Amino acid sequence: MSHRPERIAEAIKKEVADLICQEVKDPRVGFVTITGVEVTRDLSYAKIFVSVMGSEEQRQETLQALQKVAGFLRSEVGRRIKVRHAPELIFKLDTSLDHGTRIMKLLHEVNKQEESSTNE
């Protein structure tokens, strides 16, 4: 079994992160973190999972801005990692960090309630 898709995914992750920081000037692209990249086995598509700080509206605007510059990012990624056909980039919002934060808050509340009930 080939490890090429994983290597390509890591290279795409690095290059897209660099490009977003250095080349993308759209003000809608705020604080973006690339949390992961999944590449199809035939290397034709790359799902890029991003975490965006801000409100739901800001997240959606950032996602739209990223989709708008996806063609530019795709051509630059293809040039930088030297593949014959650069995969089509699809940006997806990663909400796992939000989910983890929510769980931590809930656990904290449960601990507070347990402490207050044992102190009574």
Automatic annotation (TrEMBL):
One of its GO terms (molecular function) is ribosomal small subunit binding. Its main location: cytoplasm. Keywords: Cytoplasm, Ribosome biogenesis. Gene3D superfamilies: 3.30.300.20. GO terms for biological process: maturation of SSU-rRNA. One of its GO terms (cellular component) is cytosol. It is found in: Cytoplasm. Signal peptide: none annotated. Belongs to the RbfA family. Monomer. Binds 30S ribosomal subunits, but not 50S ribosomal subunits or 70S ribosomes. One of several proteins that assist in the late maturation steps of the functional core of the 30S ribosomal subunit. Associates with free 30S ribosomal subunits (but not with 30S subunits that are part of 70S ribosomes or polysomes). Required for efficient processing of 16S rRNA. May interact with the 5'-terminal helix region of 16S rRNA. NCBIfam families: rbfA. This is Ribosome-binding factor A.
